[in-house]
Amino acid sequence: MRFRWIDWNREHVLEHGVDPEEAEMILKQARSPFPRKIEEDKWLVIGPGRGGRFLQVIYIFDPDKTIFIIHARPVEEREKKRLRRRRKS
């Protein structure tokens, strides 16, 4: 799994309190029902990060299949509850 980081996406992820390495970890450890396609070319993964928090990561694939993370942030409590219900059903 290869990732591409530039100043823009690295800074954007850091603004949300997420380390780029932690965002990569979420994608590497993704499990069902993720990754999930959310738009024509965008994918979403939600998973456990460091310290027990959950993160949401949105990414696209570059033409060479490198992963370009465009957004990462901690998941809110209400989103966690919805995710738990979805996994139970």
Topology:
Layout: H1 7-15, H2 20-28, E1 36-37, E2 43-48, E3 54-61, E4 67-74, H3 77-88
Antiparallel strand pairs: 1-2, 2-3, 3-4
Strand numbers in spatial order across the main sheet: 1-2-3-4
Main sheet characteristics: 4 strands, antiparallel
Output the number of helix runs: 3
**Share of residues in helices:** 25-40%
SS-based class: alpha+beta
Number of strands: 4
Q: How many domains make up the coordinates?
A: 1
First-to-last CA distance: 30 Å
Based on CA atoms alone, the radius of gyration comes out at 13 Å
Percentage of β-strand residues:
25-35%
What is the N-to-C order of secondary-structure elements (H for helix, E for strand)? HHEEEEH
Mean pLDDT: 90
What does this structure look like?
The chain has 89 residues and is α+β, with helices and mostly antiparallel strands. The chain has one domain. It contains 3 helices and 4 strands. The chain has a 4-stranded antiparallel sheet with strand order 1-2-3-4. A hairpin with a 5-residue loop joins strand 2 (43-48) and strand 3. The model has no long low-confidence stretch (mean pLDDT 90).
